[in-house]
Design a protein that fits this description.
By secondary structure, this protein is α/β, with parallel strands linked by helices. Helix content is about 45%, strand content about 20%. The strands form 3 sheets. A 15-stranded mixed sheet has the order 4-3-2-5-6-8-1-9-18-16-15-10-12-13-19, sandwiched between helices. A hairpin with a 3-residue loop joins strand 5 and strand 6. Helix 1 runs antiparallel to helix 2 and helix 4 packs antiparallel against helix 11. The N and C termini lie far apart (about 50 Å). The model has no long low-confidence stretch (mean pLDDT about 90). Pfam families: PLDc_2 (PF13091), PLDc_N (PF13396). It comes from Aliiroseovarius pelagivivens. InterPro entries: Cardiolipin_synthase (IPR022924), CLS_N (IPR027379), PLD-like_dom (IPR025202), PLipase_D/transphosphatidylase (IPR001736).
């Protein structure tokens, strides 16, 4: 009898403790900042329906912060580092239709749009690397590179060798890589050789003991940015990692098709500012003096502004910028993204843009390297097609470019995908620009992608089997958790 009573007592105690743990976790999920109502509701359902498992899942996947020390350091740097270069830089005269879009982009980091920029769009991944290496070989003062993924393949090794040559002739070379995305490089002798050659290095979100680190910070918050700044005035923006298009770590989806733009002009200072912040937050030395430099503005060139978003930096920045550009569209919008899992507001804005008569074309990969995201993306197809959005699935590889163009006049280009991970979790960098010539060149690239894609018809979507629709929509329901 005593044994039975003891078991009942302990069983009841554990049950009460489990309920209290669930309640405490639900309270945290509900009160956590930077979360949509749909996300909060989804986590409440998961925690209540999966006792203990839901709690563990929340602390591993639900919180949107890395660690308190890094968050505080970033907050301090955002306040202390300058938001504009020295000198009197008058804001450019922006086209009326895009002023609010630029204002939202500028608000992310406190930058202001700046004129006097010029850009060229690379043909393919190999040309992007060729241009980068040529710039590194010509560098006189410094080379700053940040990549989420840096592989030790042909192109990754070529860039490393160019950096080592630059360091040997006295150029200051600094490199940031993500601890997860570039883990192959970090374990390769090439990384050691780079450091021995005098290249200064920093690893963003490094961790040695993942199971232990997971109890103190969320492991899948990553630095997904691609930042290149050379000798102050040259920068690149786009989707390409430091690798071959063959992308050997996921070669069955190859080639990975990207876009990169080489930009010269005063907007490069804003990319530099993001690099300096990331460098110092992740343990690099204080290099803030490099920002104390006057930046002349040429008489010609287009206006642009950089936006560096993150889980604690203007969480809704990317969807807001996209939505405001969509609202300004008069004739045509072309969206290129590898991962489409939008917020409810962005999905509605895309549909509303098509409903009011603007031609909207969405280009996504036919075969996604994340099957889960691929299913989630397709859960949005029916509503998009019903609104009149044209959906095209890219066939020869994984379309990895992230582009939004409006009327051939304005564009948003950078590292973020149109998915919840880029909105809420990753550190990303984008550039908004307005220029018919440059945006026209970007649209030409988008047209090439569309020509290599197949349209998705309403008839095809409506012919999906019940099993397929249940699977797709079930995964789609989990979109707020992604």
């Amino acid at each position: 009898m005593f044994e039975i009573s003891w078991a009942i007592t302990w069983g009841g105690t554990w049950a009460v403790l489990l309920v209290l743990l669930d309640i405490a976790t639900i309270a945290r999920a509900v009160t956590r900042e930077h979360r949509s109502a749909a996300s909060r509701l989804a986590w409440v359902v998961v925690i209540m329906s999966l006792p203990l498992v839901g709690v563990i899942a929340y602390f591993f996947l639900g919180d949107t912060s890395s660690d308190r020390r890094s968050d505080k350091k970033l907050k301090d740097l955002r306040r202390e580092l300058p938001k504009r270069p020295k000198g009197d830089m008058q804001p450019p005269e922006l086209p009326l239709l895009y002023r609010q879009s630029f204002a939202r982009a500028a608000s992310v980091n406190g930058f202001q749009p700046v004129a006097g920029n010029r850009a060229k769009v690379t043909t393919d991944s190999n040309e992007s690397i060729d241009w980068l290496i040529a710039d590194i070989d010509a560098a006189r003062a410094h080379v700053h590179l940040l990549f989420y993924i840096w592989l030790t393949d042909r192109n990754g090794t070529r860039v490393a060798e160019a950096l080592m040559r630059a360091a040997a002739r006295g150029v200051t070379c600094r490199v940031i890589v993500d601890g997860l995305g570039s883990r192959g490089l970090l374990a390769d002798p090439l990384w050691r050789k780079m450091k021995e050659a005098g290249i200064e290095t920093v690893v963003a979100f490094a961790f040695r003991f993942a199971p232990l680190a997971a109890f103190f910070r969320r492991l899948d918050i990553r630095n997904h940015r691609k930042i290149i700044v050379i000798d102050h005035d040259t920068t690149y923006v786009g989707s390409q990692n430091c690798s071959d298009a063959a992308f050997l770590v996921k070669k069955k989806f190859a080639p990975w098709v990207d876009i990169m733009m080489r930009i010269s002009g005063p907007v490069a200072w804003q990319s530099q500012r993001l690099f300096v912040s990331d460098w110092m937050v992740n343990g690099g030395t204080d290099i803030s003096d490099i920002l104390q430099r006057e930046t002349p503005v040429p008489d010609d060139g287009f206006p642009a502004v950089v936006a560096g978003t993150g889980p604690n930096i203007s969480v809704q920045g990317v969807p807001d910028m996209a939505q405001m550009l969509l609202a300004s569209a008069q004739e045509e919008v072309v969206i290129t993204t590898p991962y489409y899992v939008p917020s409810e507001a962005l999905q509605q804005q895309i549909c509303a843009t098509a409903v009011r008569g603007v031609r909207v074309r969405l280009n996504v990969p036919a075969n996604n390297d994340s099957h889960f995201v691929g299913f989630a993306s397709r859960s949005f197809y029916r509503a998009l097609l019903k609104a009149g959005v044209e959906i095209h699935e890219f066939q020869p590889g994984l379309l990895h470019a992230k582009i939004l163009t409006v009327d051939g006049q304005a564009a948003l280009v950078g590292s973020p995908n149109l998915d919840r991970r880029s909105f809420d979790l990753n550190y990303e960098n984008s550039m908004m620009l307005a220029d018919p010539t440059t945006v026209g060149a970007i649209v030409e690239k988008q047209e090439l992608f569309l020509n290599a894609s197949l349209p998705v018809s309403r008839k095809k979507v409506e012919s999906w089997s019940i099993t397929r629709r249940v699977l797709i929509n079930t995964v789609g329901m989990m979109a707020p958790l992604l």
